[in-house]
Every structure is written in C-alpha cells, then in structure tokens.
Design goal:
This protein is an alpha/beta fold and about 400 residues long. The protein has a seven-stranded mixed beta sheet. Strands 10, 11, 12, 13, 14 and 15 form a six-stranded mixed beta sheet that branches. Strands 5-6-7 form a three-stranded parallel beta sheet. It binds zinc ion.
Amino acid sequence: MDKVLITADRVIAGPAVRVIGDGAVLLDSGVITAVGTAAELDTSVDPGVARLRCPGATVMPGLIDCHVHLAFDAGPDPIGAVTHAAPDELAAAMGRRAEQLTAAGVTTVRDLGDRDALTVTLRAAIESGATRGPRLVVATAPLTSRGGHCGFLGGEVTTDDDIRVRIARNAAAGADLIKVMASGGALTPSGPRMWESQFTPDQLRLIVEEADRYGLPVAAHAHGTDAIAHCVAAGVRTLEHCSWRTADGTVHDLEVTRRIVENDIAVCRCVSGDWRLFLEQLGPQRADAMTEVIRTMREAGVRFIAGTDAGVPGARFGDYVGMLEFFGSLGFSHAEILDMATVNSAHALGLTDTGALAPGMRADLIVVDGDPRTEWDALRRIRHVFTAGRPLTL
Ligand SMILES: [Zn+2]
C-alpha cells in the first residue's frame, strides 16, 4: 500500500486549531503529498489509488513520547531486570515495547537511557522495516556521577576527561542526543537525593559544549531547583521532570522559569498513566504544591512536551492518554494538550518532518474513532497507525 487516500470526518492538521471537516490525506511512499477536503482530493486523486474511508473518525499527527526507557520493564525492580537480562533477551523485550507504543498511536519516541546502545540497533531494525515500531530518537547511556542516578546503565563519569570520552563514545555509537542526570532520582536510592546536584555548573557547561561538537542536543534530568538553574545556564535543550525539589520541599524559581521561556527550553514533566495514585501518595499538600508550580509555569509561557517515563515502575508502555488527562485535570485545553503531544514535541526534538500533517512531512499519523478535541477516550480507540507510511490496523 504505497499510495493511499485516507478520508475521515475531520483532519486535525496540526497545530490543533487547523481542522478540516470531511478531510482527506494522501500518502505516497512514506510521505504526505496532499491534505485537503475529501471532496477535493477524491476527485483529483486517480481512482486507481487505494481509499481508506474512515467515517466517524479523526485523522491527526502521530503522537510523540519524549521520555521513555525501552530497556526498563515497568515492573517493581527495573534495575535488577535491566542489569541481569542477557543482551539478546533484553533487545527482544525492547522490540516488543516499541510495538506496544506503536499500537497506542505513538509514532515517535525519544529514549532517554538504555544499556549497550541497544536502542541504536533497534532504531536500525525499525528503519529498515525488519521490526515494527515508532521512529526512535535515542540518548544511549546517560551521563551520571560515580554511584549516581542510573549509573548501572554504564554512563558514570568523574573527571572532565571522562565526560569527553563518554560523549565521544555515545556519539560514535549513534546517539541522537546526550542525556545527563543533573540531579539524583527516585529510581536509584543509593545515589544522591532527588534534589542534590550530581554535576557542577562548569561540568554541565562542558557537557553541552562537548555534545554540541557532535551536533547533539542535551536533555537534562533535573529534579533539584539548583540543578534546574544550572542546566538552564548551561544551555540544555530540554528539562526532564523539572520538579523544583529542595531538601525543604518545592521551591519554584520564577526568574529561572523566565529564562526557560526566553531560551525556548522545553519541559518534559514525565507523567505516567497512574498519576492519580502518585498524587495520592504525595498527600494533598505536596500534590497541590506540585500542580500549582505547573500552572504557574504554564502562565509564564513554558512550552511543555509530552513524556510518560515508560519503563520506570508503574509507567506502562502505551499508557499515553493517561498522561494527557493529567494536564487536562490542571486546566490545560484540549488543543493545547494535542499540540504538546505533536507539534511542540516535534519542535523540541528538532524534528521538522513530523508532528503535523502537510505535504512533504513524513506520513506519521493516526486514525482514531471520535473527536480527540472533545474526548480523550477517542485516543484510546485507535483504528490505524501509519509510521513513515507503514500501516498498522487495529
Ligand atoms: Zn526517565
């Protein structure tokens, strides 16, 4: 099915305000070649071209998950699972998780930390068509301090030379970006606390400079308020988590937030599908503090992008819509959230050929039952997924 004309009740071309009623999209050899009304394209496109008619449905850009760990199993002990797995078993499991993401309508995935650069091998298998899966943008082994957060993935560094060597290795292995664990994290209880910095401001600057020598952007895991400020000063491209933690609770710095906006740094808040349980466990006071900061950042103009942290305990692969509902619960509009999941995430990842439907873009799109502009469940009723024009029918 090289060439196909898809028609549906509406096409959300992206951004979400661009909607064509009774719309159509023409795909040819993995690329979108026309977007318009069904009436126009049905007449102008050769009758010999296959038609995929989808009454009651919406066609929209494929979803983007900017933060996953294909090497983790979403079980209670991802560290044990990833360190004890034989490489070929782990690679097979990662392939299955990539398929789960595709089935959920996710056509682009940024993996922010794996072992042995297994995501690079998977990326090649998907690109060649040997394996089914989303387009992968991969970080390989995240840079972390000795004994620091996720050090078991192989990216521990101490000296400036270690930093240079690690980045050179990741680049040579085929990484699309560099990930740094700028603060501690919950997954690694033996390492620094979540609010403690793992690198000095100078080291973070060195990491951004070195990555830039290979043309690679930097994504920074940063929970701590200090770490966030240092990452912004260093010039990272995206901030992961960005939860403004200190030893004394949440401390949001509005000045730093203004610089995040000015420098077009995207914030990936990393929300799993079971966020209700997470908020419950935090307790009302801390949960309110957390959600209030997100609202304040939104008002300041921060560009949020979509990420589930799939693979860490409780964050299941393909449970994408739950994350969107979290932002809905904070008062973000449907259009704003759809853009977060598509155009804004593509922009933050530096991808100019996905996240919207227009001639010349990659044919990364989904067909869903109903209208996701008014009902999130529509995104749980996926009929078709196209990744670079390759179809998956559910
Ligand atoms: Zn993560």
